[in-house]
């Protein structure tokens, strides 16, 4: 793969953008709270080609060699928002809305190599209300993820979409076609997102670019401003305790495992010995998929774990090389082969201290 650069990407939506949950007979229904990594990566590659920063042959080599990898893009407000882990809930009682988390108890149990029990599930909020809503994997600030709590009356998080209704026009009669309404739900302008980008060295820089992202770009949808900030891998590594043994990783991408006791060779990232043996994954299941333009086929993976999942792993190797390898695993993820078909941008698992400490934003 060669030498790689790592960036924190900031995205600002400048025109309504279609990132649908699903397609129906009458248009695109719903909007995603996060933008899939494959969608963002494809938009950046298309922009590089459109502006002649790479040739058609280079674009083909990029896609073949997976020289551009993107995490999903998550919302950002005043701070970065991260996909919620499975052990945080919000009270649904009117006027309350407090968050309650069991994360400290869960981490203590997992890092000792023990199994979770019923106490990992919250039954009430701090006020004793029992109506709790599970937040995993909705985006939340790092402070909320680690501490829970919020003041009553604080604005409730949520994503408001904009619905556009259109009607096809008959080419022969130059008038609308009866019974042929179709609609889009779009992300409104002004929203901001962030993502982690890994790209072959020397291809991107910290200039501001404009992408065309999502569906309907030929109709003016999906204009997004992209700015990049280079990530300092050494700075991230210094924020991570160098230790072997049981550790908990926080996933910023879907988690896909090929079998029980899935092992990730950290030597593929650092050239040094070290490995991560996955013991358990805690998170909700999801289906991921997309369309491979080069092969003109649809791909789909069922029973993946959602972003925000916690991964209990046993780490082996020298402390310093393991710490470096874990950071690169979180930034690059793992290549997963499915019978000659390779997927990237999966298993981007960061040491949990990086997420809860909001180190990426510093």
Notes on the protein architecture:
By secondary structure, the protein is of the alpha+beta class. Helix content is 19%, strand content 36%. It contains eight helices and 24 strands. The strands form eight sheets. Strands 1, 4, 5, 13, 14 and 15 form a six-stranded antiparallel β-sheet that branches. Strands 17-18-21-16-24 form a five-stranded antiparallel β-sheet, sandwiched between helices. Strand 2 (20-24) and strand 3 (27-31) form a beta hairpin. The longest helix is centred in the N-terminal third of the chain and has 14 residues, at 37-50. The protein is globular and about 75 Å long. The relative contact order is 0.20. The mean pLDDT is 87.
Summarize the structure in short.
The chain is an alpha+beta fold and 362 residues long. The protein has helices at residues 37-50, 56-65, 103-111, 142-147, 233-238, 267-270, 319-332, 352-356; strands at 4-13, 20-24, 27-31, 68-70, 74-76, 81-83, 88-91, 99-101, 132-134, 139-141, 162-166, 182-186, 192-200, 209-212, 223-230, 245-251, 263-265, 275-282, 285-292, 297-305, 310-316, 334-338, 341-346, 349-351.
Largest sheet: 6 strands, antiparallel
Q: Which structural class best describes the helix and strand composition?
A: alpha+beta
Mean pLDDT: 87
The residue fraction in helices comes out at 10-25%
Instruction: Identify low-pLDDT runs.
Output: none
Count of helical regions: 8
Portion in beta strands: 35-45%
Number of strands: 24
Gyration radius (Cα, Å) is: 21 Å
Overall morphology: globular
Q: End-to-end span in angstroms? A: 28 Å
